What does this fold into?
Amino acid sequence: MSILTSNININSKSAQENRQEMLSFVEQLHKKMGQSLFQGKEHHIARARKRNKLLARERIEYVLDEDSPFLELLPLAGIEGKGFGAGGTSVSGIGLVQGKLCVINSNVGTRKGGSIDYTTMAKSLRINQITLENRLPTINLVESGGANLPEQAKIFNIGGQSFRDITNRSKFGLTTISIVFGNATAGGAYVPGMSDFSIFQKQSAKVFLAGPPLVKMATNEESTDEELGGAEMHSRVSGVSDYLAEDELDAIRIARDIMRYIKVTTPHLIPKEKIANPLFAAEELLSVVSANNKVPFDIHELIMRVIDGSDFSEFKPEYGNTLVTGWAHIHGYPIGIIGNNGVIFSESANKGAQFVQLCNKNDIPILFIHNTTGYMVGKAYEEGGIIKNGAKLINAVSNSEVPHLTLMVGNSYGAGNYGMNGRSYKPRFLFTYPNAKIGVMGGEQLAGVMEIVQRASAQSKGVEYDEEKGAMIKAMLIAEAESKASAWYSSSELWDDGVIDPRETRNYLGFTLTIIYNQTIKGTEGYGVWRH
It folds into this structure.
């Protein structure tokens, strides 16, 4: 056993001050998560209640097994955009239905009529990707007015992709069940139409490619909603519906009954041994993870508060020590860990690439923990081959075939983000701490580079550099870069799957490892060409 020991005095003044700063970030997170819980204006909710309708999140609660965890995904998507707000008009996540891991998507019909804006559609595509990669069944809780027409040009193509995704999953044996509680019009009608099972609620489901007004205009035919696309017509005549439900609870009962019989993947591993908790409290993460990203901290201090028994088998601890690598267990699941302790040097990159190979050879998933400003720069480091060695790590990460998890806990800048398996390298799940920052480089560095370029330009033109204007531009660049580097911006842009309270890290990782280990894990021994 290799038990990690802490070098932090949790009761010190600096640790307590850091805790207070982190708590302020967590308070911001709770406030923004509160915005994602918005399910429509009061009069829209009152109208739904009058019609005996459940709200989107209530439907999810009824679908889930009693006391099932629910991993909500992308709740802050679009929070800083111009769309419909945090999370768009859908609630999505993973929970247990009949003891089986299942993706659940619920349209928020009381918010903009459940219409699909660009953010909601982009969120849907990411959820589809998670569903396919993790080989999970899906339950769609449908009540949507279809595409948000002012954004139809942006939505059209990716909307088509979402339909393709349903059929692709069906081809791979991943069941999709759709329950229609209300409108599912135009393109939205293809969601139940392409599902493996569709359940329509009597006197509420309205599923048609064109509603009565548009049919009247196009064909001069007059019809009612029920005649054109009602639940009974589709159940008894068209065959689009497989089950006719009496009410919402009956529809949910049918979906849960179907889940009893569908085939799901066989778990690759179910931990059987008694699971040891970390020797250090999760609460202490607020004191040890630096709220100010300019202040370094030892990534071991985070690892020991997340892994089972704080037992960490470190690989090459004396070499390339700005990258920490090693093996551990989280909730009984084996995991390889690659964590930053600052800038990435050639030695660190080489160690990381070798560790990725070892994890693949032994079929062990990898957790990447980001806190780096990127690869080291400078004449000596360029001569030392930082480019070829940095590329080696990127090559190994790119071609690795074991599942990856990514956790942003501090800085994640430049190609360091790539080498540490950032969003563009397709981790199975990616979560962010509220203090984290991501970008090409830090705001001050970016502004400083631009100032150097502008001074050189002025000199080449033989004109005097305007110091006052330069200072103003520099301040604007720093402010702009910092806002675009924030966790809120990255989550709004779907660069992560959620911003999390650091104290919940072990729970999030444990649940996602349960999902990952729900299918066979097999690494690769093949990589692209790299220079030595």
